[in-house]
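Complex record, two chains
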Amino acid sequence: MTTATGTYSPRPGAAPLPRMIAAQAALETRMLLRNGEQLLLTVVIPTLLLVLFSSVDIVDTGSGRSVDFLAPGVLALAVMSTAFTGQAIATGFERRYGVLKRLAASPLPRWGLMTAKTASVLVTEVLQVILLTAIAFALGWSPHGNPFAVLLLLVVGTAAFSGLGLLMAGTLKAEATLAAANLVFLLLLVGGGVIVPLDRFGGAEHALALLPVSALSDGLRDVLQHGSGMPWADLGILAVWAAVALGAAGRFFRWE
Amino acid sequence: MRSEPVVQVRDLVKRYGTKTAVDGLDLVARPGVTAVLGPNGAGKTTTIETCEGYRRPDSGSVRVLGLDPVRQSAELRPRVGVMLQSGGVYSGARADEMLRHVAKLHAHPLDVDALIERLGLGGCGRTSYRRLSGGQQQRLALAMAVVGRPELVFLDEPTAGLDPQARRATWDLVRDLRADGVSAILTTHYMEEAEQLADDVAIVDAGRVIAQGSPEELCKGGAENTLRFTGRPGLDVGSLLKALPADSTAAELTPGSYRVMGKVNPQLLATVTSWCAQHGVMPDRISVERHTLEDVFLELTGKELRS
């Protein structure tokens, strides 16, 4: 139009992509860390479980010290709580309250938003791992194995849980996501080899071993407790979950 | 350059299941402020959201700043500001935090502090979005639409539910945006808002644009106008009617209060006052009522209640 240079004169333009993604990831992380219910899931519950079951002999965790059994399971639980439960609930409500819709009209591309969400999940997980590892060490944990294998398991596990969380958040109503994500969290906590060894479940053991949290906790335990090499079977199970869940989320996710 | 439309909608059709929300709608919006008026369910929001790239047309075409909102979304999004009818903010975010965030997604954003001050959002402090008042939430959504210095803003019912002060503040901002060369497409239920702000008004009903023009043009069109005066009760209305042009009506609405309807022009006014002089009537209060946009709107869209 005119060459006016008033306060509001148009001067449109997207910020550079890395800056947009970094800003989005920082905001998502702040929202997560500010949310009390989320902190309960991601910090309080895993910490309590680790401390409680390591100090009190409630569940028979097999030979060896219980913290060596529990720490890998609780790390798997931490990944599930953030990448699956927390992300599903937060994203479900963002969808419900039009946050995703509004951001879709901003210069940030959709894949940029998803990248930022992933970065925020990873940042939260790093904080969780630091906290839980410190507590486990204080409880006398002595981990073994290859840190690279641990990292790879955590990353592929995160991908699998993120896919499942986003699939749920992008297809169900926010309230249904809230209920289902919590229920699944509880069921997998009990039946996914996190604190209760899978061989306690008798005939269901082999089916339960295919669950993503079982594969992650079992894989982490193989490495950290028993010092074995890369647990390919568990990694494979997680990779299949990741591929299927992310594929389905990409296909079925609805933004409003 | 000036006449290049900012929005061009041609024969837009959008259905949801068996319901046709938009039914062959044509709309050309020039630079400036265009108000889209219509009853509930007329297809206003669907049209706006198609322009914003949220919905794909079932048929017809939509161009915004010359671009296809779906296929050229990446190019278009930085140039357009969007205010949704509701929501759009993290429930745990503070107003300034969210606005600063949206600013960071743009290359040359407005001064966030000045915008917060201007829209009276400074008092929100550390309150999270879900605890803000409806008016504060609306103003934040407006701020988010303009902070990126867009060429065009879409405002979906920007003042719905606002108190008069907040409504004035919103109107003032829209006027300043316009003065600085930002175009706006706004939907509204408030006729006064359209009269105050819009260069151009499009009236939408049943998924089509049924009238478009400047508020003055729309008010001039076709419809009758009204002249009122007061005098002593019981004047001979029949005699007055004889003096008036054939298509006029005259009535004593309440004792001493008279209404003449017809083509109100200087001749009609002169006829009425000379009739009064002949009959020794002093018309205490005499007024000519311009046809309002609301009259036009109701005439065009009918007076029944809509769902």
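Note: The CA atoms of residues 202 and 212 of chain B lie 4 Å apart.
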